[in-house]
Structure formats: structure tokens, C-alpha cells
Amino acid sequence: MMVGGLTGFGAGAQFTVNGAVGIAQRLGVPENIIRLTLIRFGTTLPELTICLVAARRNQPDIAIGNIVGSNIFNILFIGGTVATIHPILIPPVGRDDLVLMASLCVSTFPISAGGVADDHTFGRVFPVAGVF
């Protein structure tokens, strides 16, 4: 069952990438935009899948742990590796993004504390906040 699931997951990922590239090429999207978007989508899709499965099984701790763990890994390991090779300078415009991300991070504390886990308002607000 595990081998079948992994095979299906890999085949589905390949199908998704091939379809996305085909659509983007037909729309005339530049190659570098296609590559960057697919890398971003490809690294997010497994976490999205795990979160959706956890939500369906009513296991919010798995979803939150997956998101937090992934972000910690990306910030500390990937960011640290890149900063070791070349210093990362934050432009003045990027500071506004850091403030937004920090405030969204702090606003998730009540959710993880269990006080408002049953309130669907957060499920509606956070995706909208992520767009801005």
C-alpha cells in the first residue's frame, strides 16, 4: 500500500508539473517565471496535501506541526545555508513583509494554544491575509 501511494504521488506530481508547464507555455509565460512558480508550487504541494488529509481526519495538531516544522526548516536550514554562502541583505521594502509575517505568526499563538481551534474564522482570514 505504501509503495502504491508513493508511486501514485510521484506520478501525480509529474502529471501536475507537465500540465502546468504546458498551460504556461501556451499562455506565453516566460521560462524563468515557469521555473520559479513550479519550484514554489512543487515544494508547497506535499505540505498542502498533508494538511488537507489531517484536516479531513480531524487532526489539527498534525497540520499545524507540518506547517511550523516546514517553515522552521526552510528558515533555519535553507536560509542559513544560503547566508553562509552569501550574506542576505533585506531591502527596505522587505521589512514591511517581515512585519506582516511576524504579526501573522504571533496571531497563530491562540490557535495553537487550543483556545480558538473550533472557530472557522481563522480558516477564512489567514488565506486572505496571505494574499496581501
List the helices and strands and how they pair.
Elements: H1 2-26, H2 31-56, H3 60-85, H4 92-107, H5 109-112, H6 121-131
Helix pairs in contact: 1-2, 2-3
Structure description:
With 132 residues, this protein is mainly α. Helix content is 82%, strand content 0%. It has 6 helices and no strands. The chain has helices spanning 2-26, 31-56, 60-85, 92-107, 109-112, 121-131. The radius of gyration is 18 Å and the shape is globular. The protein starts with a helix and ends with a helix.
Major sheet characteristics: none
Spatial extent as radius of gyration: 18 Å
- What is the total number of structural domains? 2
The count of DSSP E runs of length 2 or more, i.e. the number of strands, is 0
Strand content: under 5%
| Count, helices | 6
The overall average pLDDT, rounded, is 77
Helix amount: over 70%
Coarse morphology: globular
Distance N to C terminus: 41 Å
Query: Uncertain spans, ≥5 residues at pLDDT below 50?
Result: none
Structural class: mainly alpha
Strand and helix order: HHHHHH
What would you say about this model in short?
By secondary structure, the protein is mainly alpha-helical. It has six helices and no strands.
Q: Which characteristics define this entry?
A:
single chain, 132 residues, mainly alpha, 6 helices
